[in-house]
Design a protein that fits this description.
7-stranded mixed beta sheet, Rossmann fold, 43% helix, 3-stranded parallel beta sheet, globular, 368 residues
């Protein structure tokens, strides 16, 4: 097993053991930040709210939701899980948070559409004694716990891989930076990490913050960059995730760019993995979903029971210092190590990746 995955697995196992030993209880009456304590127990089933931000990115419905629900049920078989998806609408998510508070759930797992605008709802939950676990994105307000990946490291992994692939070409042309949504604090950290590697090594001809992480926005922006810079002058593209990479590659192909420059990605989406196999996309960042999802479930159940969750470190948001946190290391994936990462870990089977369209490419890559 990869060292980074092993480290994440150990952290999750330790958290799982701690939560499994806890008696069923509630932080509902604790007040404050909902952290609870040993004298605030509750007999009976718990209610956990799960709020995910959108369904444009395949990971949320295909991986995050089922993994979180699975782990909650393993820890608390009679727990009730209330799931909602905001579909990239911050106002909708605020209403969903308010509904969870009205239902008097025992804990909330929140992946914020807009980390800043949701702060008021997080504060309402805190006042109601409902702890909130920030999942994947660090929402503002009195968050009780947080789990995500080391997001600056994600950007560094992407930037480093792009520079290594460019080699001597790094000084000969320009790259386009297609960053994530300006309302997502993770996007700013990906960008910061990438720029820490890229600045001074390659010229950034165009840089965009992409509304809603939408592939169609990335496609439109990339078309504009090609028209402005000239297709012959673009040697690489930093794309913050796989969905946008798909839109970028479509724009490059439509403009007649051949061969394609290296394009980065993130999330190891199936379509992104298939583009890597076919040679259209250079790399993605694999963020093992299970450790992150399990950590969130374990934090939420622990907090709902009135226990302090097991965490590895603390982080600061714009409003809250020392939020108990577990951060998981990302992994760069190219065609060379795809078999030993996403396939070996069971994210996808060879059959799922190597459909008829990609059969020859898979054979060439040794994926069979």
């Amino acid at each position: 097993m990869n060292t980074q995955l092993r480290r994440a697995a150990v952290a999750v196992a330790a958290t799982a053991m701690a939560v499994s030993l806890a008696a069923c209880g509630s932080a509902k009456e604790a007040g404050g930040n909902g952290s609870g304590g040993d004298d605030e127990k509750k007999d009976g089933p718990l209610a956990i709210g799960l709020l995910l931000p959108e369904d444009q990115t395949a990971r949320y419905e295909n991986f995050d939701k089922p993994l979180i629900e699975k782990r909650i049920k393993e820890l608390c078989s009679d727990c009730e899980i209330s799931y909602v998806n905001a579909k990239e609408d911050a106002s909708t998510q605020q209403q969903q948070m308010n509904s969870m508070i009205t239902k008097k759930v025992d804990a909330i797992i929140l992946d914020a559409v807009d980390a800043k605008s949701i702060a008021g709802s997080v504060n309402k939950a805190d006042q109601a004694g409902i702890p909130v676990v920030a999942y994947d994105r660090l929402a503002e307000g009195p968050i009780s716990a947080y789990t995500s990946f080391d997001n600056e490291q994600v950007g560094k992994v992407q930037g480093t891989a792009l520079l290594e692939e460019l080699g001597d070409k790094a000084g000969d042309g320009q790259i386009v930076m297609m960053n994530g949504s300006p309302t997502d604090p993770n996007a700013a950290m990906f960008k910061k990490g990438a720029k820490s590697v890229l600045d001074g090594k390659v010229k950034v001809g165009k840089s965009y913050d992409t509304t809603g992480w939408k592939p169609e926005e990335a496609n439109k922006n990339m078309s504009g960059a090609i028209a402005s810079l000239g297709k012959e002058n673009i040697v690489g593209v930093y794309s913050a995730n796989d969905g946008m990479a798909g839109g970028i590659i479509t724009a490059l192909k439509s403009a007649g760019v051949d061969p394609l420059p290296p394009v980065t990605g993130q999330d190891a989406e199936l379509a992104g993995v298939q583009r890597i196999i076919s040679g259209d996309q250079f790399m993605t960042v694999y963020k093992p979903f299970q450790p992150e999802a399990y950590a969130a479930a374990e934090m939420a159940v622990a907090l709902a029971r009135g226990e302090k969750p097991e965490t590895e470190t603390t982080v600061d948001s714009a409003t809250t210092k020392d939020v108990p946190s577990t951060l998981i290391e990302p992994i760069a994936v190219t065609v060379d190590n795809l078999k030993d990462t996403v396939v070996k870990d069971g994210l996808y089977t060879v059959e799922e990746i190597c459909t008829a369209k990609y059969a020859k490419a898979c054979e060439k890559a040794g994926l069979k």
